[in-house]
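Hallway conversation turned thread

IA: we were arguing at lunch whether anyone had actually written out Extracellular esterase estB end to end. Turns out nobody had. So, for the record, here is the sequence (337 residues) and right after it the structure tokens. Reply here if something looks off.
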Amino acid sequence: MRMNRLRATFLAVTASIALMGTTATAFAGPPEDITPEHPGGVAAPHSPEGIPSNIEGPSMSRLLPAIRFANRHPGTKVPGTNDFTCKPRKGTHPVVLVPGTTEDAFITWSYYGPRLQQAGLCVYTFNYNPMTHPLMEASATTGNIYSTAAFMAHFVDKVLKATGADKVDLIGHSQGGGPLPRAYIKYYGGDKKVNHLIGLVPSNKGTSLLGIEKFFNKTGKPANTILTAVAKHMNMESVPQQLQGSTFLKELNDGGMTFPGIKYTVIATRFDNRVFPWTNALIPEPGVKNIVIQDVCHLDFSVHTNITYDPMTFQVVFNALAPDRATPVRCSVRPLT
């Protein structure tokens, strides 16, 4: 009951932040004091160095049981991940799974981790920058995206050093498939260390609030001050950063959304219930492979929140990751919930 009240409070605060606007912080590129050595974000107590170190959780097939398990066991280890003795097979790269906003690694990747390991891949994931409420550790990746991206640079370097690889493949959900890894690529050296970025329903161009954000983009200092205070107090700066038209996204997307030498795959759903419009997930640039899951299977009604538990989307991801081992997607009915 208590957790339900906390979750309701969290959702209410999130909505309030979103409705207050996007001009809270005048970003002009990453702050100089945020570096991979000193990212400045909030560490997850049960994930030292970002590595989930609580009990190993089971492989889940649905989102809600994964959320319940993660809330009971903060820092749950994702099965199949973070074996730093793993050596990639020839022709493969280490795979780093990047969580999305308000999701820890287990919530997002308990389905993917063991399946990618069983496919013979070295798989890694991390927790960082959760909400500051002591009972909300599983609501990770909420803090300033610059800080999380700087930490991600540190984590990827750790993976590369352990595996002996020169590059990684990234698979990310929501923020973790768009703004976060692209900030790492643009600002913190990822342009030389990423082979392939696969984004599931990424918030690449942010999310709209039925056009209301355009009004709040023009609001004055009082709203900005309130937003900044609330977001910083709860370590939720990534929420206003991901609103369509935010200064953060303008800066991130300025000059193009891709970098030479990196492969980009975007997987979107027409039934996205977080990124509005759903086309904001797409990267309309040469060389990017944009895939709409309903074009692969018209019976797949996956939404933003449950797409990392969709077997058909997983097969699309794996086919993009390992095209030499691709197999046809077996289409079946996938409900909205």
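OS: looked through it. The longest helix spans residues 2-20.
IA: good, adding that to the notes. The mean pLDDT is 89.
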